[in-house]
């Protein structure tokens, strides 16, 4: 897990909606955070693979945080637990 992963999860949790990669990039830009589109594009599939986000629409690739992702953010699930899966 990286700091970018945490911020992606936090933004999805804060927004409460499904966002696509471009929307994530624009929101990070607006917040003055340096998380590039290529980073978002690279990290979302990994976050999906370990169950922290889910793709809710194929067309446009919209993602939302899962309950497992929320548990990770609140500290109920440790990053080391994710590596075992």
Structural notes for this entry:
It is a single chain. By secondary structure, the protein is mainly α. The chain contains 5 helices and 2 strands, in the order H-H-H-E-E-H-H. It has a two-stranded antiparallel ribbon with strand order 1-2. Helix 2 packs across helix 3. The longest helix is centred in the N-terminal third of the chain and has 13 residues. The model has no long low-confidence stretch (mean pLDDT 91). It comes from Halorussus caseinilyticus.
What is the helical fraction, as a range of percent?
55-70%
Mean pLDDT: 91
**Domains counted in the coordinates: how many?**
1
> What percentage of amino acids are in beta strands?
5-15%
Q: Which residues sit in consecutive blocks of at least 5 with pLDDT less than 50?
A: none
Rg result: 12 Å
Number of helices: 5
Strand tally, please?
2
CATH architecture, please? Orthogonal Bundle
Distance between the termini: 13 Å
Structural class: mainly alpha
| CATH homology group | Winged helix-like DNA-binding domain superfamily/Winged helix DNA-binding domain
Query: From N to C, what is the helix and strand string?
Result: HHHEEHH
CATH overall fold name:
Arc Repressor Mutant, subunit A
Shape: globular
Please describe the biggest sheet, giving its number of strands, its sense, and whether it closes into a barrel: 2 strands, antiparallel
| Level-1 CATH class name | Mainly Alpha
State the strand order across the main sheet: 1-2
